[in-house]
Amino acid sequence: MEDSPENLIEEEECDSDEKPRYNTPFRSTRLHIQRSNVCSRAYFVVVMVFFHVYILNVIALLLYVHYNNGPGDLVSGDGGSSSGPASDSGASLPHPAPSSRELHEEYSQTFSLPRFEGIRVGHVQQVSLGSDRTHEMKTLSLKPLLFEIPGFLSEEECRVVVQLAQLKGLMDSQAAASSPGQVESNQPLLSLSTEEIFSLLDLNQDGLLQKQEIVSHSRSRDGTWLSPDSLRQILTGLDTCPTGVLTLADFRRVYDPSSRPEKQKKGKTHRQFKQRSKHTWLYQGPGSHHVLYTLRNRVASLTRLPSPLVELSEPLQVICFEHGDFSNAHHDSSPSHPETTCAHTRLAGNLSSLTEVSCRYLTMLFYLSSVEEGGETTFPVADNRTYEEQALVQDGVDLTDTQETCGRGNLRLKPTVGTALLWYNHLSDGRGWMGELDEYSLHGDCPVRRGVKWLANSWINVDPDHLQQERYQRLVAERHRATSGMEEHYRPLSHSDLHQDL
Ligand SMILES: *[C@@H]1O[C@H](CO)[C@@H](O)[C@H](O)[C@H]1NC(C)=O
Ligand SMILES: *[C@@H]1O[C@H](CO)[C@@H](O)[C@H](O)[C@H]1NC(C)=O
């Protein structure tokens, strides 16, 4: 009620002031500031100032965008998602020339994990596999982020990998089934002699067991053929060995197969992982077969992950699915809990009673053979609108049971020799490191109906705790140095121990 007469007066003033304002600008301005009149000069000035600031902002933004898209991609180098390999718009650009930012680049490369962008399902991008090989990579799903690269391996290379696996020998990877229908999987998993176990652990076949070889076997989830307790037993034995390596004789002393603990128990709440296949592990480091070595380098070039991460990851797992063989849907990696620790960095962590789990940032799967019928890789919930663990088992339908429900999966891929799949088992944490487990990465192998399916898995192990990953890498580097100069390494250690005691 008070306002309306005031407004009227102001409006009147506005009109009536038009003429006198030229004569007494000062007075009228002050008057209008006080009343915040829409027609005042002060208001005009304020609007103009805002307008200019706005224009400047727009120009600054345009400049920022311009430099951000410029060659070198340096501005976005601090671990943002845009520093992923996909950011250079498909073209396989060479690495930016070294500059004053090199140090910073190196830093951010150590502490950030490049990640492809999917854009949309069906999107095709060119990727570089080193030595001027470029391939087409097609996005198959966004949840999980899954890509297909045809012709990643030649047929000849696939044949070599299969032969190497056969030479090494494959072992059953039957995992205990929880359903009462399958009794046969309760038989003892393996009956290997000590020599055989030694030979299987000896990845580079030099007749000695190095620590790294044992550590690379410490996978406690799927495909483990030595329990964590046995591995720990061997590791403790190795630590007491002054040479730092185990010969077969040492190994016999250290490892007692009769004391082999009963099969590992898994978490009570989780469904048992069921599978039937044969598998083996192939070492890919220096001195390994050149096809295996090249394969790993190709994985490193493609993913652009820091090379220590690729080098310290698990060996190549080769799996053979014969008629009727399958694996139920599962995750390759594990959600992180305070009470779990990554198997691969366990050395650098707390050895007390934590549960070991596999921590695998991404999976690269290589089809080493084509299958005549069946044997598809299924992603039951790929790009589903929502995901609920409870919805997986509903109305008597278990979507993880590939023997029964393979046909109902959202995405099924027929194995084609030489084709590679790449998917991320984890989301990004938003700061360039590995975040939560991507539940959508659930996948399994449908039963083979005709033919034999050979595939290989290359996993990149990353600890969600990047400090722990860092500690582990430093530890391995130290040990590496120690094996070349054992004496120098052990002396200072005992010295410091002595000082501690005194
Ligand atoms: C290891 O774990 C125990 C108990 O869980 C804890 O008391 C100890 O501080 C931990 N040590 C390190 C180095 O984290
Ligand atoms: C897949 O999405 C549908 C539709 O949102 C939903 O009803 C169903 O429960 C989802 N499946 C799973 C396994 O979450």
Automatic annotation (TrEMBL):
**Required co-factor?**
L-ascorbate
Determine the domain of life of the protein's source: Eukaryota
Q: Which UniProt keywords apply?
A: Calcium, Dioxygenase, Iron, Membrane, Metal-binding, Oxidoreductase, Transmembrane, Transmembrane helix, Vitamin C
The answer to whether keyword Nucleotide-binding applies is no
Q: Where in the sequence does UniProt note compositional bias of the Low complexity kind?
A: 83-94
UniProt keyword Glycoprotein present: no
Q: Where is this region: Disordered?
A: 1-23, 76-104, 483-502
What SMART domains does UniProt report for this protein, alphabetically? P4Hc
InterPro entries from the entry?
Answer: EF-hand-dom_pair, EF_Hand_1_Ca_BS, Oxoglu/Fe-dep_dioxygenase_dom, P4HA-like, Pro_4_hyd_alph, Pro_4_hyd_alph_FE2OG_OXY
* Comp. bias intervals (Acidic residues): 1-16
Spell out where the chain crosses the membrane.
42-67
What does UniProt give as GO cellular component? endoplasmic reticulum
Output the Gene Ontology terms for molecular function: iron ion binding; L-ascorbic acid binding; procollagen-proline 4-dioxygenase activity
Q: Where is the Fe2OG dioxygenase domain?
A: 312-462
**UniProt-recorded name of the protein:** Transmembrane prolyl 4-hydroxylase-like
Annotated source species: Salarias fasciatus
